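Pilot study result, target chain (262 residues):
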Amino acid sequence: MAEVPLKPTLVAAAGFDATADALNLRDAMKGLGTDEDRIIDVLTHRSSLQRAEIAAKYKVAYEKDLEEAFASELHGDFERVCKYMVRPITTLLAEELHRAMHRPGTKEGVLVEILCSRSNKEIRLIAAEYHKLFNKSLESDIASDTSRDFEDLMLALVNAERDELHVKPPKPDPAHPAAVKPVPQPSAERAQNQAEQLYKAGEGRLGTSEKSFNMILATQSYEQLRLTFEAYEKISKKTFEQAIRSETHGDYQDALLAIGKT
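Predicted structure:
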């Protein structure tokens, strides 16, 4: 699948001063009326980490959560968006996953958007926050609210066992020397083997063996997957994206496509 260059639209502000921003937000909400433009100017020009720091400084300085201040001074969609923007991203994503699975009809697209593009560390943090907030495991809710191939893929992703070349491995534990698994480097030979497995699991048979798709797409590094997709195209004369579109459907297809484009 072709790589799409991505460029963030909201980046960390230079010369950032969380205390000054907290004061600016408080002044914007003091007295009669609210200066919404000042609030927008602060929140839309700070990164997620910077907004979290502003919220922490606000609570220390004024003994009130910034979200509570927004709730008392703002209204409607503007209030909701401002509260979301100062909420820790892990909390926000855990809440969105819970909301997606506990409203009438599970919103699978939310699970795809969150789980198919996160690192192992991010997924583990989200899962821990989910349990902290709702006293249930993310895995159990996925298992009870999704089904079949889509469920299997989501559970495989929540296991957070993808090979990650860019992540520094933890220091070996002398008491458990085998616990740290070395991350395999991308391999053309392995790519060829995986491409053949994927072809035999999809286009090369009647029906599709989703287990092979899940095992490879949920565990291999993105660098390895790119090599595998290139090898697949040589075997099939189709791109892997074209194969997914012809061999799968629905939410499961959306999830595979999302992983392939990451």
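One observation from the pilot: The chain has 15 helices and no strands. A full batch analysis is planned for the follow-on phase.
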